[in-house]
Amino acid sequence: MKIERLSTDKIRIFLTFDDLTERGIQKEDMWREIPKVHELFSEMMEQAYSELGFDASGPLAVEVFALPAQGMVVIVTRGKMNSTSSDSADEEEDIYEMEVTLEESELISYAFSDFEDLLRMAKVVLPMLPEGGKLFSYKNRYILQVEPSDWDEKDSRYQALIAVMSEYGEATSVTQAVLEEYGKTVIAENAVQVLCSHFQ
Which CATH architecture has domain 108-198? Predict the structure, then answer.
């Protein structure tokens, strides 16, 4: 579980599927009101408080983005407090005063710190992915995002693609919106094909 502060009232939490499995939570459970999910949210908020000093009292807006093969990104935004009560029992209830929105992204997003690794990966996946893919530069790394829209997560090609990308790079939770705003677009479309044709 990785937690980072986006602003005074907003944090981002990246949960891997291992984080969920360890707690006996399936991806689909995040859509349901069950005690295990409440425990996970409590644990996330405690960790956010101890690591970042993020106080989760008051109303919270929680956005959950499911990313294929990587895990989930949870963005928590703190609303304004209506009362100034500091009663701990009230605060415990406030944690669950949250509005949850869920989105599932089909994007597969991998980061490569070495351009050579990115090229080697591109040459291996080209037969699987002859078109599509966007390449960004962000925080001194190359981030490749692909959207194999017609593949199912259980498809062997999908699994093979993830396996190769994991061998050369690492899954990242940076969203396309963040990359477009704060990163630099290196190759806007058909990134794998362009890389292979330019760098033999």
Answer: 2-Layer Sandwich (3.30)
pLDDT in tens, the chain (200 residues): 888 888 888 888 888 878 888 888 877 777 666 788 888 888 888 888 889 888 877 788 888 877 766 678 888 888 765 544 444 444 444 444 555 555 556 678 889 999 999 999 999 988 888 788 899 999 999 999 988 666 655 567 777 888 888 889 888 877 788 888 889 999 999 999 999 998 86
What is the maximal distance between C-alpha atoms in the chain?
65
- DSSP string for 75-91: EEEE---S-----HHHH
Q: Angle, to 10 degrees, between the axis of helix 156-168 and the axis of helix 115-125?
A: 160
Q: Which residues are within 8 A (CB) of 57 and not within 5 positions of it... i.e. 6 or more apart?
A: 81, 91, 94, 95
CA distance to 33, 62, 107, per residue, from 146 (Å): 32, 26, 6
CB contact at 8 A, 115 and 149: no
CA distance 34 to 85: 28
Q: How far is CA 178 from CA 64, 65, 136, 138, 175, in A?
A: 16, 14, 11, 9, 5
Domain positions in the chain are 2-104, 108-198
pTM (2 d.p.): 0.56
